Amino acid sequence: MAPPHVALFPCSGIGHLIPFLRLAATVAARGCTVTVIALHPTVSAAESDQLSHFFDLYPHIKCIQFQPLPFKKSKLFNEDPFFMQVEAISNSVHILDPILSTLSPPLSAIISDLSVATSICRIASSKSISTYVLITTSARFFSLMALLPKLALRESGGIQEKAQLELPGLGLVPVSSIPPPMLDSNHFFSTVISSNIPCLSNVKGILMNTFTGLESESILALNSGRIIPDLAPVLALGPFEPFEVERRAPVGPRSILPTAPTLQWLDEQAPESVLFISFGSRTALSRDQTLQLRDGIEKSGCKFLWILKSNKVDKDDKEDVQSILGESFLERTRKQGVAIKGWVNQDRILAHPAIGGFISHCGWNSVTEAVRLGVPILAWPQHGDQKFNAAVVESTGLGLWAKDWGWGGEKLVAGDDIAAKISEMMLGKDLRARVKAVKEIARQAREIGGTSEGFLSLLVQELKLQEK
Ligand SMILES: O=c1ccn([C@@H]2O[C@H](COP(=O)(O)OP(=O)(O)O[C@H]3O[C@H](CO)[C@@H](O)[C@H](O)[C@H]3O)[C@@H](O)[C@H]2O)c(=O)[nH]1
């Protein structure tokens, strides 16, 4: 019997691309024929680098380049370049219709990003192709997204003025944790979510990069129909492995090069002594906040490795570290740490024994990487799903969250406060022990007999039954 053919369709931004590529590698390793529908051109250089690295490693995975139609400014116009690309993609999905019919062998299933799920579902069902949706955020935030159509209805009831909301499956939620765009039903972000949630009753399954040991309550609430009565089954498959590991082969030079000198420096540091600081692929702190963070890191006296960003899009991030942080800081901290700009292999850095803590914006990929590798987190959510993700970090004892720091840019957090929290995290013995315990639970989830492994086997079995 020929293997089933599965296409994956990630959306804009590395935070969406990476989990799709990880899942593509996993499904291919289980004997499926895999096609990745890759955006071209990408907004960031990091996305195109990840794509070429991925296809170098997996020459047997097919690539279809998908070029959205030129962007037209709409009434929902949002100047974020990643949102602009999502809108261009949404307006262009119909181009895929004839392409999907010509794939050989014929497609059995397509795994789509939520932002285009409705259109993909429509095209796929006309061809008897099953649709799955891969959710790239936490089960906790996904629950909020699923409730959004109801939240928007209550907007006239003055949600913004309330301190907290009682939400099904989520309990009491501080309104300050809900990303402001979700409280505005005309915002692009809200519109994309609200228009795609209803199709989640018609898809075959909802795939998530989480696991029951991390988010049991949210996964249960989603699967018991408490959030949306007829939601498709949620399969918690995480935490995802990096795709290099999935292949279990030597890593290609592209992924080694940018990280190699940094790893050399890390090799010289004591175990669990280095603080890693990174705010993901698309968050740049303000200049003032960067300087306070700089002072906080120095005052903490902690060894550090800081990946600095001064622009949302990497192609435009031209300013060098010296001019941002100042020569004197770099000179004074020559023995304390390293600040660099550019792409590093974060998963590999978090796996290094010298890393003892992570200041993170709580992008969901970063959280799941830290969980899988047992690194405590100091959560500093900046926007979007990140406060919900930070709540998962805090409630499962994986890290600390200074809630009074607010959203990114809401207030200037002082260097002294940052230094105090860094020390609390790096010296927290109980915290470290809890993080190691959750790391073990994550490992067990992926082993034979584990929950994530069970869901993955179920998915692959289902795919094989749909083979055409
Ligand atoms: O120098 C770098 C920077 C990032 N990464 C990787 O890039 C990914 C970044 O993803 P994430 O941590 O989720 O952050 P964002 O890039 O900010 O992701 C966006 O997408 C996520 C998934 O939907 C959301 O949770 C975030 O809030 C949203 O900002 C992770 O795998 C990192 O390991 C690197 O390897 N090297």
UniProtKB/TrEMBL annotation:
Transmembrane segments: none
Keyword terms, alphabetized: Glycosyltransferase, Transferase
Record GO terms (molecular function): UDP-glucosyltransferase activity
Top-rank taxon: Eukaryota
Keyword Transferase: yes
GO biological process: glycoside biosynthetic process
EC number annotated for this UniProt entry: 2.4.1.-
Stated family: Belongs to the UDP-glycosyltransferase family.
PANTHER family registered for this protein in UniProt: GLYCOSYLTRANSFERASE, UDP-GLYCOSYLTRANSFERASE 708D1-LIKE
Protein name in the entry: Glycosyltransferase
Biological source species: Dorcoceras hygrometricum
